[in-house]
From TrEMBL:
This is Molybdopterin-binding protein. It holds the Pfam family Oxidored_molyb. Residues 91-226 form the Oxidoreductase molybdopterin-binding domain. It comes from Sphingomonas endophytica. Transmembrane segments: none annotated. It comes from the Bacteria.
Length: 251
């Protein structure tokens, strides 16, 4: 039996007719932001205390996979650098793993494929209100961090991407509890095929205990850090910094 998926946040559209049209659209109304994301700092500790962050997200059978899996956020980075990598079928793409590590890495898709692989069929929940079930495959992020010799002083892992927001790479972060969770993977395959561009080719993060905006696409760099203070405006992610999204988007 598939355990019910507890959604932490319910979006309610009132008489004003609020409609969330995409994870990549900034919610402009200050009142809406206050209602949707109020209490992040006050309640973060309580949220963690009330949830088992080591628990597994529900996994599903192949016959339960969604016939359509929408894209969230950027659909194509659209930069010259990304276009060149795409034209070469990502043969020249490398994932940089650096920061507080003993052995910085530059990994190709073949290198990532040489790690032990995990395949999982999970449900993706987007903050705009839709969900879909799909299959993902790739190495565990924790195994990659171990191969790089992550230092004891590291507390967070920061992801930087090929898509640009305001002229700068998209960024996100998670802590070590999620980084070493067995379902947190660097996915290069979706539904038994290489990722397509809309879903984050050539590599995306899958952090299954969190909402979709945490699942950074078009990964270029993974950096171990001891603090989020120097990342963007200090809240650890693009949407957290600019639209007051929760940093810990647990579901």
């Amino acid at each position: 039996m598939i355990a019910p998926l507890l959604r932490r946040r319910t979006l309610i559209a009132g008489g004003a007719g609020l409609m969330l049209t995409g994870c990549d659209r900034v919610i402009q109304q200050p009142t809406v932001r206050t209602i949707l994301f109020k209490g992040e700092d006050m309640h973060r500790g309580l949220q963690r205390a009330l949830s088992n962050r080591d628990a597994l997200a529900p996994e599903f059978r192949p016959d339960q996979m969604s016939p359509r899996f929408r894209t969230n956020g950027t659909r194509d980075p659209g930069t010259a650098d990304y276009a060149a990598l795409r034209a070469g079928r990502f043969a020249d793409w490398r994932l940089t793993v650096d920061g507080l590590v003993a052995r910085p890495l530059r990994l190709s898709l073949a290198d990532l494929g040489a790690f032990p692989q995990r395949a999982q069929i999970t449900r993706h929940d987007c903050v705009e209100g839709w969900s879909a079930i799909g299959k993902w495959q790739g190495p565990r992020l924790g195994d990659v961090l171990k191969a790089a010799g992550m230092r004891d002083s590291a507390r967070y892992v920061v992801f930087r991407c090929a898509d640009l927001y305001g002229g700068a790479p998209y960024y996100e972060s998670i802590d070590l509890i999620d980084a070493f969770h067995p379902q947190t993977i660097l996915a290069w395959a979706m539904n038994d095929r290489f990722l397509d561009v809309g879903h984050g080719a050539p590599l995306r993060l899958r952090v299954e205990r969190q909402l979709g905006y945490k699942h950074a696409k078009y990964l270029m760099r993974v950096t171990a850090v001891d603090s989020l203070a120097g990342i963007g405006k200090g809240r650890g992610g693009y949407w957290e910094d600019n639209v007051d999204y929760d940093w810990w988007a647990g579901i």
